[in-house]
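Per-record layout

source: Geomonas terrae
name: TIGR02646 family protein
length: 270
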Amino acid sequence: MRYIDIDDLVLPANWNARATAAAAKVALGGDPDVDSQVWRDLKDGLGDLSNDKCWYCETPIPRSDNAVDHFRPKGRCSDAATTHNGYRWLAFEKTNYRYSCTFCNSRRKDVSHGTVGGKADRFPLLNEANRLYAPGPLHQEEPALLDPCALDDWELLGCRQEDGSPCASSNDPIVEQRVRASIEVCHLDHEPTCKLRHPLVVKLLSEVAQAKRFFPLSKTDPAMRHEFYEVAKRIKKSIDRKSPFSGELIFILKGQRHTDHPWIQKILES
Ligand SMILES: [Zn+2]
């Protein structure tokens, strides 16, 4: 996961007027799905913000497969303590949109690997008592799900070196709770996704090991200096925000920091 600044979204001409008109119909009791084309028209713009990667899992996916997810579900909310008809008033609010792959967005069962997930109408909160049932200040709610559009949330998600499966980046109980919720709701432990992620982790660790060997030699040997920079460039590329699973790879790279290797911190900050 990486931070997405949704304010960078480029809106098609006349989009705001169409969204306002559609929201007015919903306020009068209309079904948001009637005007679903309004949010579908943002799909390309939302994809542009992440280099066409899912905002939740960073899997690159063909645009045709992607969906515009409503972070706060528009239809109903199955996590609410009492009947919740969805955050209908946010159906046409652009800041409620997340670009999402089918596995993160739609409820699916992976029978062969025993996992199930997909966001659908899920939206768990840390404290259910604070849930909004009508328009109100959104900051009142503390989402359990990690939000790619919240400045710090992406850094809370890591992955395991041994199999590429998702994990919390710290053992803070709230972080662990939120990561658990995100894994469950967004199906982040979907085995085929972990299998895509794992080889990149293995490659990164092998390049870091190589760079750690080259680095001390690079101080006196120009040929080794060249080799070191070549590997360092590849490491930097793998954590670039355009690269698949870059958030989790940053977590792995952070774990490799060492006082003898200040270049790792430099790459992380670059
Ligand atoms: Zn996804």
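summary: The chain is about 40% helix and 5% strand. The chain has two domains: 6-189, 193-269.
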